[in-house]
Amino acid sequence: DIVMTQSPDSLAVSLGERATINCKSSQSIVYSANNKDSLAWYQQKPGQPPKLLIHWASTRESGVPDRFSGSGSGTDFTFTISSLQAEDVAVYYCQQYYSVPLTFGGGTKVEIK
Amino acid sequence: QVQLQQSGQGLVKPSQTLSLTCAISGDSVSANSAAWNWLRQSPSRGLEWLGRTYYRSKWYNDYAVSVKGRITINADTSKNQFSLQLNSVTPEDTAVYYCASGYGLHYWGQGTLVTVSS
Predict the structure, then answer these.
(1) Alpha-carbon torsion, ordered B20, B23, B27, B28, to 10 deg
(2) Angstroms from A77 CA to nearest CA on chain B
(3) Residues 6+ apart with CB under 8 A from B77
(4) What is the pLDDT of residues A27-79, one digit of tens each?
C-alpha cells in the first residue's frame, strides 16, 4: 500500500495569512499515461463529506477559489491557502489515486489564530 | 452535475450484515470512464477506502485487504445504483460510510453513520 504522510497535524493561521500543508507519498505516484501525479486534496467541514479541491496535484476543481493551490511532484506535495478566510477552517486531506487501495493522509486541522 | 444519494440502515447488530445503497443521478453506473467507491471514516481509522466497482466491457471489483472476504460491492444497472454489503460486522466497523465517484473522488454521498451494537 502507498502510505501518505501529511504534516502538520494542525496549524493556526491569522486571517489573511498563508497556510501550508505538506504531504509525502511512500512511492512515486506519477501516472505514466499523462505524466501527472495522481494526488488529490480535500477539504472537510464538520458533518460534511470531504470536498475535492484539487486533483492531478495542482488542478483546481471548477468553482474552487484560486487562493487554494497545490504543487509538488514525485513523492512530495504541498497544499497552500494563500490568504486564509474564516470559511476555510476545516480539516484538509491528501489522497493518492495511483493504485488501490486508495489511501489518505491523516489530515491537517486548520484553525484561525 | 453528479449526485449520490445514500440509503440504508444506521444500526447493525454484531455478526450481522451491513447494507447500504448509493443511488446515482447525472451519470451512469456502467459509464466506461467511471468508478464507484465505498469509504468509511472513524476517529480511530481516519478515512479508509473499502472498495470499488467499475465497468470496462465487463464488471470489475477491487477491495481493501482489511475487509476482503467480508465485503461485496454490486452495481444495479436497472436502478442506476451500487451497493455495499459488509458481513460479520463488529463494533470496529462503526463509522460514517460514504459512497463516492471517480479516482480523485469528485462526488460524494451525504454519509451514513453506521453503529454496530447489540
Answers:
(1) 70
(2) 15
(3) B28, B29, B30
(4) 999 999 999 999 999 999 999 999 999 999 999 999 999 999 999 999 999 99
Q: Round the average pLDDT of chain A to a whole number and report it.
A: 97
The pLDDT of residue A71 is 98
Cβ proximity of B99 and B109 under 8 Å: yes
B100 touches chain A (CB under 8 A): yes
Provide, as residue numbers in chain B, all residues whose Cβ is less than 8 Å from the Cβ of A56.
Answer: 104
Backbone dihedral region for residue A96 (phi beyond 0: left; psi -120 to 50: alpha; all else: beta) = beta
Contact B47 A101 (CB under 8 A): no
SS (H, E, C) B84-115: EEECCCCHHHCEEEEEEEECCEEEECCCEEEE
Closest CA to A91 of A1, A3, A4, A11: A11
Residue pLDDT, tens place only, B36-65: 999 999 999 999 999 999 999 999 999 999
* Cα A18 to Cα A5: distance, rounded to the nearest angstrom: 21
**pLDDT digit string, tens, across residues A75-93:** 999 999 999 999 999 999 9
Residues 6+ apart with CB under 8 A from B99: B4, B6, B20, B22, B36, B37, B38, B39, B82, B84, B108, B109
A97 pLDDT tier (thresholds 50, 70, 90): very high
Q: Is B35 at the interface with chain A, CB within 8 A?
A: no
Nine-digit cell string for A65: 477559489
